[in-house]
Design a protein that fits this description.
Layout: E1 11-15, H1 44-56, E2 61-65, H2 75-83, E3 90-95, H3 104-110, E4 114-118, H4 124-131, H5 136-148, E5 154-160, H6 169-178, E6 181-187, H7 194-201, H8 205-211, E7 216-217, E8 226-230, E9 237-241, E10 254-257, E11 262-264, E12 273-274, H9 282-294, H10 302-305, H11 314-317
Parallel strand pairs: 1-2, 1-10, 2-3, 3-4, 4-5, 5-6, 6-9
Antiparallel strand pairs: 7-8, 8-9, 10-11, 11-12
Bound molecules: S-adenosylmethionine and iron/sulfur cluster.
Iron/sulfur cluster (SF4) binds next to loops.
């Protein structure tokens, strides 16, 4: 469907839960979050109703995210049922990778097409510190597993934080020499816990690119949020996601569904529409989704406000 600014919206990102098995410093409070009551969280059957209604409006691509989507049992079932919905061509997940190794094959079999794995450092101790307790070896094994079973291209999401992981940028870039992965450097956003780190920690994609002239620009897909580069003769690619320094709102093709059953037309806007009362009526559901697509703002204002307009944190939206 075309939104109010002429953009074609064909991508729905779904946050399945706001709970997580990690506590990344820029995302989750150290003490964790209050557990929601069951009735306040969308059930998988309800999610499938929403995906079906969205597919009628031309949504072709689904991404399951969170919180951490893989802490949910039966995610394989959800992926399988999603793949049966006519019009859905692509089903991806964004995960921290901790629980992925053992279930990657089953998820692929169920219909998962692609996976984004978050990894902000290649050093064991630093990983444990950033995630407040995670084991990097599980993530590295998951990446290898996904490559070996052809769940590719594996995209590695790396949020850059000055003073924390900017000393490892070249190690991440060098990873693409031998591994067929796409390392995507993401600018730290002033949202949720990221707000506290933003002032001292923000590093623009331009700052990184200036230090690595050996990165050769590639022609990017028009709707891709990442600008892509490559080292000569490397197996993988390097991407830059620059929501602040080079925002891509004019090419935005997505809407977001939170686990609280609200649609967010824009990641950084407080505007949300609740789908709760329409879940049993496909016609009404489709019409509210249509309204949310049509009401997508033209752009966010993060780079000027230095603060997200969203009232939800990243772990509630899914990135
Ligand atoms: N738990 C999964 C994971 O970590 O991949 C999925 C949810 S997580 C909220 C989705 C993405 O948002 C991750 O790649 C994470 O690094 C990113 N993220 C979280 N807070 C952020 C912030 N303040 N700025 C930029 N990216 C952020
Ligand atoms: Fe959890 Fe992902 Fe947030 Fe880290 S970034 S705390 S893994 S939801």
């Amino acid at each position: 469907m075309i939104d109010g600014y002429g953009r074609s919206i064909d991508y729905l990102r779904i946050s399945l839960t706001d709970r997580c098995n990690l506590r990344c410093v820029y995302c989750m409070p150290e003490e964790g979050i209050d557990k929601k009551a069951h009735e306040d969280i969308l059930r998988f059957e309800e999610i499938l109703k929403i995906v079906k209604a969205a597919s009628i409006l031309g949504i072709k691509k689904i991404r399951y995210t969170g919180g951490e989507p893989l802490i949910l049992r039966n995610i394989g079932w959800l992926i399988k049922e999603t793949s049966k919905i006519p019009g859905i061509e692509d089903i991806a997940i964004t995960t921290n990778g901790i629980l992925l190794e053992d279930i990657a094959e089953d998820l692929k079999e169920a219909g998962l097409t692609r996976v984004n794995i978050s990894l902000d450092t290649l050093k064991e101790d630093k990983y444990t510190a950033i995630t407040r307790g995670g084991d990097i070896n599980k993530v590295l094994r998951a990446i290898q597993k996904c490559i070996s079973i052809g769940l590719t291209p594996v995209k590695i999401n790396t949020v850059l934080i000055k003073g924390t992981n900017d000393d490892e940028i070249s190690d991440f870039i060098n990873l693409t020499r031998e591994l067929p992965v796409e390392v995507r450097f993401i600018e730290l956003m002033p949202i949720g816990q990221g707000e506290k780190l933003y002032e001292d920690g923000f590093m623009s994609s331009g700052e990184v690119l200036a230090k690595f002239p050996e990165l050769i620009p590639l022609e990017s897909n028009k709707v891709s949020t990442a600008s892509l580069y490559k080292l000569k003769e490397a197996k993988g690619k390097v991407g830059f996601i620059s929501p602040l320094s080079c925002k891509f709102c004019s090419q935005c093709n997505r809407i977001r569904l939170t686990s609280a059953a609200t649609i967010k037309p824009c990641l950084h806007s407080a505007k949300e529409l609740s789908l709760k009362s329409f879940l049993d009526n496909e016609v009404l559901l489709t019409s509210v989704l249509k309204e949310s697509i049509y009401s997508k703002p033209s752009q966010h204002n993060l780079e000027c406000d230095k603060k997200s307009g969203s009232e939800r944190a990243m772990y509630q939206i899914g990135g």
